[in-house]
Design goal:
mainly alpha; three-stranded antiparallel β-sheet; about 450 residues
């Protein structure tokens, strides 16, 4: 929504010339939201056991869960009011101006470009656990090439595949819970000391608690490919959030209740290893979990590739990034170079093999993006009260709670993961230098990037 020269409120909508196809429904957004995150149940989170112990990680999960619930409610308002492929970049540009939009878009890209290498490394670990003759890094590289190609085939193909593998991965978790439940020992969850590293351990576990939910917001970047984004985005997001809440609690506590926590906290395939402690190495449950676990990792890897390609495409279309990244393949309606170039960065990052560091860098990008998006929500409520909001969060209480929890997550990251700060700072310095040297000279004004609807869209 903006004001024209006569003072009439108007709403800006994407022009028809942008060649993304509207093919997605709420079930597809649910599968994207859950699929983007579901790998967080299959790996990554268990590193938190080493930092805070079982209860330390469980305590870290409480404020993280409160944050994500309140954030997704707030984010749904932004996503339905401004259904744009740029997602957080578009929201911040509307509220904070050109540089704010660029910074939020870069933060989103940090999250979405550094998360796939960690997931792909876990794919390699699961494949190696299932087939020891295959080198983990070979499987990692092969996974990248395959899913970049699959995304190239178009959103309809990608979304259908994402839905299928997400359902299989979710069923896999249900199988894991049923296999683990008969052997669950609550005494192992409450073993002394409850907090082996004290409060600092709880803070150090926060990045790994975030991993249970990291990237759920990526579904908003498919807004221009939703059939009815204003109605369907809240349905897909909120059902996805409810699914993830149940998944996180069951996976954490059932795994802890099987014992072998120390070993589980040091590998990229914690679920098969946890089952091995009660069923034995090489047993059918362990092999089954290794096979099904791949679907969870594949769902997230594939979904996040969708996310980074749309964010890159949208930022290039706006002019923040080089224009060639906004090129759309005529046959498949996919942003080809926005798939390939960040994919190359992902691949080289994966070759480092530093899973825990990569996870932490992705978390830094995410929390900066979360804070900036919430600030954008507050500003837009004040600056554009008549903006059409098909979904309205309970204001201001929910966004305030979300902001407080977001700041807690930022503080926790800085306290517990300061070793990653030089890498994160370096990325932001390079990105900001690019903006002032080149990027800010090519930004399209709103009237070129967006069409205008009349005041029938007013509230």
């Amino acid at each position: 929504m903006s004001m024209n020269y006569s003072g009439t409120a108007v709403m800006e909508v994407p022009k028809k010339e942008e060649d993304l196809s509207r093919v997605l429904k709420p079930i597809h957004l649910w599968s994207l939201a859950v699929g983007l995150v579901i790998s967080g149940n299959y790996f990554g989170w268990s590193y938190g056991f080493a930092e805070g112990g079982v209860m330390g990680l469980a305590l870290a999960l409480i404020p993280v869960t409160i944050f994500y619930v309140t954030f997704i409610l707030s984010y749904s308002e932004l996503a339905t009011a401004i259904p744009h492929a740029g997602g957080p970049s578009a929201y911040a540009r509307r509220a904070l101006g050109k540089f704010g939009g660029y910074l939020n878009g870069i933060s989103c890209l940090i999250e979405f470009v550094f998360a796939p290498p960690a997931i792909a490394l876990a794919v390699g670990g699961y494949v190696h656990a299932l087939l020891p003759m295959i080198d983990p890094m070979v499987a990692t590289v092969a996974a990248f090439f395959f899913f970049i190609f699959l995304n190239y085939l178009g959103m309809k193909t990608s979304a259908t595949f994402e839905l299928a593998v997400t359902v299989i991965a979710l069923l896999g978790l249900v199988v894991y819970w049923f296999l683990a439940a008969p052997h669950f020992d609550p005494a192992l969850v409450m073993s002394e000391p409850l907090l082996p590293n004290g409060f600092s351990g709880v803070m150090a576990a926060v990045p790994f608690a975030i991993w249970f939910y990291l990237a759920i917001e990526g579904g908003a970047m498919s807004a221009e490919e939703m059939v009815n984004p204003q109605k369907d985005i809240p349905k897909g997001f909120l059902s996805g959030m409810a699914t993830l809440l149940v998944m996180a609690a069951l996976t954490l506590f059932l795994t802890a209740g099987l014992g072998n926590v120390e070993a589980v906290s040091a590998v990229d395939f914690p679920l098969p290893l946890a089952l091995a402690s009660v069923y034995g190495d090489g047993s059918m449950p362990v092999l089954l979990m290794s096979g099904i676990g791949l679907f969870g990792l594949i769902a997230s890897l594939h979904g996040i590739i969708v996310g980074y390609s749309r964010q890159t495409y949208a930022m290039a279309r706006t002019g923040y990034l080089p224009k060639f990244l906004a090129h759309i393949d005529e046959k498949h309606h996919t942003p080809v170079w926005a798939l390939i170039l960040p994919g190359i960065v992902c691949l080289f990052t994966a070759l480092t093999g530093l899973t825990d560091l990569v996870i932490t860098i992705a978390c830094y990008g995410s929390v900066v993006m979360y804070v900036t998006s919430l600030i954008s929500l507050f500003i837009l409520r004040s600056k554009e009260p008549n903006l059409k909001r098909p979904f309205r969060v309970s204001y201001p209480i929910i966004p305030i709670i979300s902001m407080v929890m977001a700041i807690f997550c930022v503080v926790s990251l800085v306290m517990a993961s300061s070793d990653a700060l030089p890498y994160v700072a370096g990325i932001y310095i390079v990105a900001i230098a690019y903006y002032f040297i080149h990027g800010n000279k090519h930004i399209r004004p709103y009237e070129e990037e967006f069409g205008v609807m009349d005041d029938l869209d007013q509230e």
